[in-house]
Amino acid sequence: MNVSITTSPDKMEAYIKITDRLPEEVVELEKIMEAIRNAKIVHGIDYDALKFLCSSPVDNSPVLFAHGDLPKDGEDGRIVFEITESTTSKTTSGNRVDFREFPVQKRIIVKSGQKIASILPPTEGVPGKNVYGEPMPAKRGNEAKAVLGKNVAVSEDGSSIIATTEGILRVDLEKGTIEVSEYLEIEGDIDYNTGNVEFPGVILVKGDVKPGFIVRAKSDIEVNGIVEAATVISLEGNVRISGVKGKDKGLIKAKKNVHVKYAEAVTIEAENLYFETNLLNCTVRVTNSIIGNRGRSAIMGGECVAAIKIEADEIGSNFGINTYLEVGINPYIREEIKLLRAQIEIDKTSIQKLISIVKQYKELKEKGAEIPPEREEQFSKTTKTLINLRNQLETNLAKLNELEERVQKMRFDSQIIARKMLYQGVEVVIYNSRYYAEIPLQKVVLKYDGEKIVAGGYAG
Predict the structure, then answer these.
(1) Tens of pLDDT, residues 228-250
(2) Domain range for 54
(3) Phi, psi of 386 (to 5 degrees)
């Protein structure tokens, strides 16, 4: 009886074959093991298979009796998001989301420096062994692949992806790109489907803003449709809107300029307001000017206050709509002056009361009267309050004087221009002078001459 040992080309399987066995010859385990030892097979031996072969020998047919252990390659690195989807402008952290399950359709707002995702490194893998006991190396997993777009970066230790600016997180699953965009585009209307929208960058609304809803952005806002009795606020930029129908409930506010085609019954606050056709029954307060396009711009009704200039083709109406215009003072400076004056009067009254209390204390001390400790403490607090109030009064008087000087300089630069017509019934205030149009005036410029408002011709 002959016993032969063979292995697979990759040395991961070993086979035993019995040949030339006599009819009554017994297959002994020791003889088989001797052949295995001589073949130097030491790993993954299946002793049960060898015992079965001895009890039920098979001639001239190779029998598998040893298996190697295949290596286990390391796992690939992964990008694991540390934020959850959000239907509002706020984000939460701590819940890990697999890259493939990233909620693409949701608005996820991140802050500058915020951790977006963890970069999990690949593992080394577990080596295997062939039937000779030789190691079979395992492959290390592949590095996590992510294409970093704008406004994102890898942390110094390489373990995280962080936002470098505030904005909306965008992930392209097909390209594997991650970026933070400072631009938010709303395809339709701002309504119950979107909810209120707040964003730290630029917002473009392709539809309308429905009544009662709020759009707030740090930068510019553009609305292609109509703003209906809603609120639109740009904290640091401009607002551009096709049209506004405020129904006496809307607010449009911008740190810089507001551009509208037309506006009805809405409050507008900005540095400058530029409009194309009509301002109808609006309340407008700007720190610079209100300017209508040449051709067919009109201000009808409402109240418009500007620091420098109000200009339109027509101001007022043949129908006698009450229209109030005021220039020559920044409306916010006016409010600040009003508050300062009120505070100054309050402080003066309080100071007089405190002076009376301190005077009483001094008189008691001069008479040698015994003053209880609690009264001493009360007088001490009163004296400190008096000193603080006097300092506050001095500061407020200086601030009031500064603001009034600014107003004095502004009054001669301000003007109201009706390129075509200023109708009867329009009320105008420049600085502290008032003018009421009793008859229509064509192509007129209204200015302050130091004593009163005067009307001059417009030649533009």
Answers:
(1) 999 999 999 999 999 999 999 99
(2) 2-67
(3) -60, -45
